[in-house]
Every structure is written in structure tokens, then in C-alpha cells.
Specification:
single chain, 120 residues, alpha+beta, 5-stranded antiparallel beta sheet, 3 helices, 5 strands
């Protein structure tokens, strides 16, 4: 009887740990709510090709969020942690964005994928 109770307890703990640490999270904790809202807006749109994604970087001493262009002449978007649009580093008609942060690609560091649309 003791062995059965121990087995049940061990299995319960393993199951609990797996569900608490192995679950898929769409967006990492600590991501600003305004970025989460932008992701939800993208999810409510049609699926993009290539798939939509959101990246976090350090740039000019601050954490920024980069949303790559998704079609043709659409510009990419670079936001600060309060979702203020800093610039469009690339894309648009010229392919070079709005020319307000031409050094973004050379100065960005700490690249981290925050979210990628996995819809088909």
C-alpha cells in the first residue's frame, strides 16, 4: 500500500511539473501588453506569407520590438516597449524603410524571437 501511494505521489508531481514547465507559451512573460495586443491583432488578420513574427532586440540602449514586413511594399515596424513606433527599418516602396533608423540592422543586439504565427 505504501509503495502504491508513493508511486501515485511521484507520478502526480511529475505530471504537475510537466504541465507547469512544458506547456507551450505563445508569448514570453515580461512582454509588454501593447506588444501582446499587436500580436492578437495580427492573429485576427489573414495568414501572412511569409508567416508573421515579432522579434525583441536591444537597440540604442533600449528594448525594442521588430515586426518584419509581410508583403511587397509594406514597411517593417520597430516599436519601443510602450508601442511607440520608432521607425520602419526596411520595406516600403524603396525597400529601405523610412530612413529614420538606418543603423538598426548593424547596431541591434540580443536577438530573440518573441512570437511566430504557426497558422497555415
Amino acid at each position: 500500500m505504501k509503495i502504491t501511494l508513493i508511486k501515485i505521489l511521484v507520478l502526480s508531481v511529475i505530471t504537475m511539473l510537466c504541465f507547469s514547465s512544458c506547456e507551450k507559451r505563445d508569448v514570453p512573460s515580461g512582454t509588454p501588453n501593447c506588444i501582446k495586443i499587436k500580436i492578437e491583432q495580427i492573429k485576427s488578420d489573414e495568414v501572412r506569407n511569409p508567416p508573421a513574427s515579432v522579434w525583441r532586440y536591444d537597440y540604442n540602449g533600449q528594448t525594442v520590438y521588430y515586426i518584419p514586413q509581410y508583403c511587397c511594399d509594406m514597411p517593417s515596424e520597430l516599436y519601443d516597449a510602450d508601442c511607440n513606433l520608432i521607425c520602419s527599418p526596411d520595406g516600403g516602396f524603396s525597400g529601405t524603410g523610412d530612413n529614420k533608423c538606418t543603423d538598426f540592422f548593424s547596431k541591434r543586439t540580443k536577438k530573440k524571437l518573441i512570437w511566430q504565427d504557426d497558422r497555415k
